[in-house]
Amino acid sequence: MRGAKSAKWVVGAIVVAMAATACGGGNKDDDEGSAAVDPNGVFTYYNTEPQRGLIPTNTNEVGGHYMMANMFRGLVTFDIDNKLQMAQAQSVETTDNQHYTVKLKPGWKFHNGETVTANSFVKAWNWAANAKNAQLNSSWYEAIKGYEDVHPEKGDPKADAMSGLKVVNDNEFTIELSRPVSTFKQRLYYDAFFPLPEAFYKDPKAFGEHPIGNGPYKMEGSWAHKVELKVRKFADYKGDDKPKNGGIDFKFFSKDDAAYAELLSDKIDIMYQVPNSQVGKFQQDLGKRAISQPYGGNTNIGFPLYDKEWGKPEKAKVRQGLSMAIDRETIAKTALKGSKDAATGFTPKGIPGWQDGACGEYCKFDPAKAKDLIKQGGGVPGNKVTITYNADGANKEWVDAVCNDIRQNTGVECVTDAKSTFQESRDLITEKKLSNPFRMAWVMDFPNIANFVTEQFRTGAGANDMGYSNKDVDALMNKADEAKTPEEANKGYFEAEKKLMEDMPAIPLFTDHTVAGYSKRVQNVKIDYQRQAIWTEVEVKK
Predict the structure, then answer these.
(1) 419: alpha, beta or left, given left = phi > 0 and alpha = psi -120 to 50?
(2) To which H or E segment does residue 298 belong?
(3) What is the predicted pLDDT for the residue at 260?
């Protein structure tokens, strides 16, 4: 099964923490949290232009996810303490991790008044899994029985629906998996499992420009591309998390420094990631309105293994050598001012299933060993490394520092390739048009090591931007999926994570922190483990 929330790709380098106790901001004990509020007040939110139309099954980056996360609700959700909660589902029951019965809370509506039924989920999942519809997140349904009939590796689908999905009545459906998956209930949190109304099927492209969800906010007006998108609270929303505000204006920026300047002047109300250039002083600038906490995300360098040179088996040693040429500890402390920690694997510390040292010696700074491994692997293709990244996130500082380390410690030329927007870089990566390494940053979709291992590195996974495939690694992941207990499963995923380092399709670099802030206009601002505000809880002052 592939990438949850396809754990979304994130625009910037800095990232978040897990437990609510680690959260900063939203302090009710100071003047910032006790002002009179306007329940219909609208606040603004820093964001980046989404990569594509807002279809839940075709988005796996945060720019698009943030807006869909407000306009849709799935079966389950997580609270700020990472505890699984029911959302539109009344219950999701299983006795064997393979057969599930889903019962819905009745009375929920889409924004156009259509009732949300069991078919709203089943039909949406079948449509998205169908290979003919070419959805980016289709592999999320891989474990459902009959997936291979609607999404064969080659050729046309043999069926229009997965045999593992059955509608019992308007408020109940069943799911049969082709094998037990111990984390399947948690995976239902991902955007790919949102329901869709009948209006979607009439014109999916038009729907992507004006989505109709079942969530606490509905879209208002038209999407002003590269400028803003507005959502307003939905009066008929049936969820428990009813908005304490009137809505959100998502503002799109290509330069985070410009956004930060607007935050300081209260023109932007919440910025979930301040620029690296301001990390050293943002707490002084914002005082109690500054938020600093760890989060479930990481930053890596991916390699185009679909390229004929980088795809050669011996280049695994070259990638290991480049990894050992990078002094992560020093870069984290200097260029990144402590906003990240040096990675020892792909899974951030604190995530269930995390164990220290998955990367082993390959994430330890050792210039002599680095040169030796690169030589054993036949050298870097063209003796030059180019690292592509997006310039609208806080990435330049660490990419420059990594390139400096590679040049100084290996003698290999290293240059940076900045693309102006996250959208531009993601298009190049997802369309596999790059023949050089590229920046990757991932925020988890659900709190488990599986989300960092399987979503990016399983053969055919929707977020496997490297085109990586190793049957032995897949087998370890499958074995972990089928474990009877989460504890057994987590041990299996860790074994898969260690095995990945033999090929090193991506270099683990950093685990990230949330470094955020908010304006004087709002209060009760909290950031969750995905580095997103609890939007419905934000209060706008009168």
Answers:
(1) beta
(2) strand 290-302
(3) 95
**Residue pair 13/394 in contact by the 8 Å Cβ criterion:** yes
What is the residue-wise DSSP string for 140-202? Answer: GGTTBTTHHHHS-SSSS-S-SS-TTEEEEETTEEEEEBSS--TTHHHHTTSGGG----HHHHH
Q: Are 438 and 302 in contact (CB under 8 A)?
A: yes
- What's the pLDDT score for residue 345? 96
At 109, which amino acid appears? K
User: What are 290's strand-pairing partners?
Assistant: 517
Between helix 471-481 and helix 486-500 the angle, nearest 10°, is 170
Residue type for position 413: E
CA angle 269, 274, 276 (to 5 degrees): 165
Q: Is the dihedral of CA 470, 191, 290, 267 positive or negative?
A: positive
pLDDT in tens, 430-461: 899 999 999 998 888 788 899 899 888 999 88
Quick count: other Cβ atoms within 10 Å of Cβ 383? 11
Residue 276 pLDDT level (bands cut at 50, 70, 90): confident
| pTM (two decimals) | 0.79
Selection from 15-29, 87-101, 388-402 with the highest mean pLDDT = 87-101
Query: Which residues fall within 8 angstroms of residue 458, CB to CB, at 6 or more apart?
Result: 1, 2, 139, 464, 473, 474, 477
Partner residues linked to 297 by β-bridges:
443
Q: pLDDT (tens digit, 9 = 90+) per residue, 311-327?
A: 999 999 999 999 999 99
At 394, is the pLDDT very low, low, confident or very high (cuts 50, 70, 90)?
A: confident
> What is the pLDDT at residue 4?
31
> What integer is the mean pLDDT of 15-29?
32
> Which residues are within 8 A (CB) of 455 and not within 5 positions of it... i.e. 6 or more apart?
2, 3, 4, 6, 7, 442, 445, 461, 462, 463
Contact 508, 440 (CB under 8 A): no
Q: Quote the CA–CA distance of 88 and 117 in Å, as a whole number.
A: 10
Confidence check: pLDDT of 11 > 70: no
pLDDT for residue 157 is more than 60: yes
Q: Are 157 and 17 spatial neighbours (Cβ–Cβ below 8 Å)?
A: no
The sheet carrying 89-94 orders its strands as 89-94, 99-104, 172-176, 165-169
- Cβ-contact 16, 293 below 8 angstroms: yes
d(CA 283, CA 81): 24
Query: 166-177 in b/e burial notation, b at 16+ Cβ within 10 A?
Result: ebeeebbbbbbb
Contact between 39 and 188 under an 8 Å Cβ cutoff? The reply is: no
> Buried b vs exposed e over 412-425: b needs ≥16 C-beta within 10 Å?
bebebbbbebbbbb
Identify the helix (H) or strand (E) that includes residue 220.
strand 217-224
